[in-house]
Amino acid sequence: MARIALLSNPRSTGNRALLPRVRSFCAQHPEIFHYEVESVEQISAALQTIARVEPMVLVVNGGDGTVQSVLTELYHGGHFGPTPPPVAVLPNGKTNLIALDLGAVGDPIVALERVLEITRGPMEANIISRELIALSRDEDSHPPVLGMFLGGAGLADTILYCRNKIYPLGLPNGLSHLITLLALILSLVLGIKAAFLPPRASAMKISLIREGQIQGHFSLLIVTTLQKMLLGSGTSTLPQSLGALQLMVVDQNFFAMMRAIFASAFGRLGSGKLAGVHVERGDEIRIEGDRSSVILDGEIFHARSGRPIVLRHTTPVPFLRLAA
């Protein structure tokens, strides 16, 4: 039995500089079984091979898109039977939302050393459970795609704006995100369309079973099962009994966005009513719109009128928390 199975995606942006260090570290620690894939299409075969070594922990070294593909295959593939190993995520890629939620921050090699440390003793205190978001369409015969963080409405447009127009400038991630945020605020204040600004969001309808509908133009749509949303804030304080899917929607205007940012920064998001800010929980969420995009852990999906995107939650999946 291998203590750790590490699955790396060399094509992940963060791995272009990191992977030589990862290979060197693994060569010095024979208890790590390291498997590299060249594309997400190889993840199924990778997990079949990894299952044969019966690892105590499965570590993913890639961006959020790689993690999403691994979680989808891990859940649907059944390679590990009814008891899959807990999943750990190295801080990598551009956003690292899943890694951040699991306490993996800073140097990925340090995080990998922390995984080794945990596996050398009792692991129970570091194993936590998270439901996953299962994304499907009513008429889709394919298995749902699984992830943990979905962004839509103006947020999806802004993510694509950052990915396509700001990241190519080669700036540090923090500065890229700051420029994107300032561009978003400017577009909300001016209320205009311009090539150098994120596009204005299309109309969207969001339905929660038992909780009614929210309809309009939104600058921000988030659905997550993570414990953090944005700016390091905790997710909704609404009771868990209302549903595992946590939803935040912000109307497309400057003042609503500022209310959401300040509430998030001071840890008050979801603790009370805010004009233009909707925070809810649910077991099923339907998203419908014309030419509206949503992004689930890096993968883009398109909502259409009359053909909604349906979000449900899975049964809990084990993860390894790296924070002490």
- Number of H- or I-type helical stretches: 8
Q: What share of the residues does DSSP label as strand, in percent?
A: 25-35%
Tell me the count of domains.
2
Largest sheet at a glance? 11 strands, antiparallel
Tally of DSSP β-strands: 17
The structural class is alpha+beta
What is the N-to-C succession of helices and strands? EHEHEHEHHEEEEHHEEEHEEEEEE
Report helical residue fraction: 25-40%
Ends: how far apart? Answer: 26 Å
- Report the CATH C-level class of the largest domain: Mainly Beta
Anisotropy-based shape: globular
- Would you tell me the overall average pLDDT? 80
**CATH topology (level 3) name of the largest domain:** Tumour Suppressor Smad4
Would you identify the CATH architecture of the largest domain?
A: Sandwich
Oligomeric state, counting identical vs distinct chains: single chain
**Radius of gyration over C-alpha positions, nearest whole angstrom:** 20 Å
The stretches of 5 or more residues where confidence is low (pLDDT under 50) are none
